[in-house]
Amino acid sequence: MFPAESIVRASGVVRDSEGNPIAGAEALLLVGSSRPDRTETDGRFLVNEVVAPGRYPVPLHISAAGFKPLNLSVSTNTNNHVVATLERLGSTEESQASVHALTSEAPAH
Q: Are 82 and 97 in contact (CB under 8 A)?
């Protein structure tokens, strides 16, 4: 029997290229009716959304005023920890992120 739904969950921190947290950055899962989460002064965010069943990648968009936006993928049925580094507009560098699965839910049988 397969589950009727899956969950995509991502938490993490948004920083500038010097390692400083970015307050007011927006993290948004580009699926369903997901609502964005804005970072506080510590740069931390948490987004989650109930999605169709299965294990698959879901796009995550991270942006902040004055910085280059970042698009990446996170997986369903996994607690994704994201460390995002946004580059200032006008920089020759690209924004980047690392994504790590902290824990995984048990696979469906």
A: yes
- Say if CB 86 and CB 22 are below 8 A apart: yes
Rg (CA), the chain: 14
How many domains would you assign to the chain?
A: 1
| Residue whose tokens read 């936006």 | 69
What pTM was estimated for this model as a whole? 0.87
Amino acid occupying residue 68: K
Q: What CATH number corresponds to the domain at position 42?
A: 2.60.40.1120
Single-letter code of the amino acid located at 52: A
Distances (CA, A) of 3 to 8, 31, 50, 54, 94: 14, 19, 12, 8, 38
pLDDT in tens, 25-64: 999 999 988 899 999 999 999 999 999 998 899 999 999 9
Kindly state whether residue 1 falls inside one of the protein's structural domains: no
Instruction: Say if 32 falls within a structural domain.
Output: yes
